[in-house]
Amino acid sequence: MAQERPAKMLAAERRRRIVEMLQSSSPILISDMARELGVSTVTVRGDFDVLAARGLLRRVHGGAVLVSDYAFISTNERSRGHVREKRAIASEAAGLVSDHETILVGSGSTTFELVRALASRPESSDITVVTNDWAILDRGSKEFGNLRLAGTGGTLSREHGFFYGHLLASSLSDILFDKVFIGADGYDPGFGFLTDLAAVSEAKKVFLAHARTKVVLMDSSKICDGRSYTRFAKPGDVDMVFIDRDPGGAIAESTPARVVECCV
User: Fold this and answer.
1) According to the model, what pLDDT value does residue 77 have?
2) Tell me, which fold does domain 7-69 have in CATH?
3) Distance between CA 20 and CA 16 in Å, rounded?
4) DSSP states of 107-152
5) Peptide bond into 27 cis (omega under 30)
């Protein structure tokens, strides 16, 4: 077992190595970096905090990414995990959207897949997507020619690629959508639907207040995963949940929402 090295003596060397690792392979995990450096995970977390304060990396759950990479997490890095599940969920949820409809879509990798699925329909479907997701607007302007795209307005989080804040709320104040589709970063049966940033949570709450039918898209890896998040909806605040599978009926038994399990 590797011995803890004197953190004070090797701090500069460790942090230089962390940045080098990020430049060659981003993201990196705390556990992997601890093994690589032969130090404890507590030491690595401290190094990550120092480097984050210097603007050299961005902390994410369980690890870190380069700041320059972070804006692409929602559509690149996150979509690498559970891709089949997310696409199955998106394909099933897309069946809720009728031709000539205008829908509200939140930010996230699974909601991005939903918009991609809708874009595969014929041009005559005449669907309008209103979103606060920069990736949907940016990539959609090039790839989703069959859809009409509209941004919500708001303050742009360059780090995370979404619009938020009072300008977002103001832009939707007089609008009621038939359906809203939002993602979730976690679910706790006794607490509700969760996300990892307070600004994201506030944006999702605004979205839920402006739709008749409230739909959550999430993969099963996010149920009761032990991580701490900010709640954006209680179990009874949504109407439908699309998920690849509902392990142990965790969602179905704790919410009146209709749970749709999507075959992968």
Assistant:
1) 43
2) Arc Repressor Mutant, subunit A (1.10.10)
3) 6
4) SSHHHHHHHHHHHTS-GGG-EEEEE-BHHHHHHHHHH-TTEEEEE-
5) yes
* Chain segment 84-109, per-residue pLDDT in tens: 899 999 999 999 999 999 999 999 98
Q: Where are the domains positioned within the chain?
A: 7-69, 78-261
Long-range contacts of 258-263 (CB under 8 A, 24+ apart): 260/92, 260/93, 262/85, 262/88, 262/89, 262/91, 262/92, 263/88
Q: Mention every residue, 6+ apart, whose C-beta is less than 8 A from residue 58.
A: 52, 64, 65, 66, 67, 70, 159
Domain covering 78-261 assigned CATH 3.90.1150.10 in the classification? no
